[in-house]
TrEMBL record:
Pfam families: Dimer_Tnp_hAT. This is HAT C-terminal dimerisation domain-containing protein. SUPFAM superfamilies: Ribonuclease H-like. GO terms for molecular function: protein dimerization activity. InterPro entries: HATC_C_dom (IPR008906), RNaseH-like_sf (IPR012337). Residues 46-96 form the HAT C-terminal dimerisation domain.
Amino acid sequence: MEIQIGDTSRNDIHRYSVITEFGNPSDELLREWAIYCGSVGEIVEENIDLNLYWVGMQKILPILSSIALDYIWLPVSSCSVECSFSMYNNLLNNDRQKPFLRIIKAINYVVF
């Protein structure tokens, strides 16, 4: 992954308010954000391992690295969600519900 530099509007933490912690940032988070924005220009490696980068930044930017380590592992597509819906659909299709309904009817018949 390449970290882009040059676009100063990326330094505005409120631009990333979709991240819950950035919606109302603490003074300490703002301080860490300023340090991070000042150091981004120093990164010249094109293929950087984000996990290693943020683990290495934990002593300097503990709050920001904790947030980053949570968010970099989120799925970037809905493929996994769609796959789970497909699996649940197979479990809950009409053919599988019919035996369940027959069992419920049989239990009701026996009890009453």
